[in-house]
Design a protein that fits this description.
A 6-stranded antiparallel sheet has the order 8-7-5-4-10-11, with no helix packed on it. Strands 2, 3, 6 and 12 form a 4-stranded mixed sheet that branches. The chain contains 2 helices and 12 strands. The protein has a single domain, classed as Immunoglobulin-like (Sandwich), CATH 2.60.40. It is an alpha+beta fold. It is globular, with a radius of gyration of 22 Å.
Length: 162
Amino acid sequence: MRRSALAALALVLGGVAGCGGGAKIVPVSGVVKLNGKPYANAVVSFQPVGSKDNPNPGRGSTAVTDAEGKFTLRYDGTSDGALVGKHRVRIFTQLGAEIPDTEGDPAAADEAAKKRAKKKMTMSTVELIPPEWNENSQKEFDVPAGGTAEAVFEITNPKVKN
């Protein structure tokens, strides 16, 4: 009987060890396109979707797209990747994206500052990505156990002219 109890205890402890803290973070990258063209300065947010058995699956991951619309998710601001499983996806334009300063030329630097101010004002008042991709998003992406470089999001907005 004692052996049975020890064997049962070993099974329980082994099962608990496999469940706790075993959230797997895998590499996730891809591209965001708006009306078929790469979209720079988009914030891409992945938030794990809870279930009845696991209502609080973990922290989300975010990234900002580069000039080619490419991104690599970062988990909890500490490491690249995202948790394995289903995620709610939200994509929106980054507020206050910077135009690089022009060093050594005061007139050019002043002009760059004016452009930054104008761009910040424009970006804070106009969102080119439709609400169904950000504030009203029901979009989901399933992060596979091996990670992926194929998280491609094709967004269309007929109100945006190319």
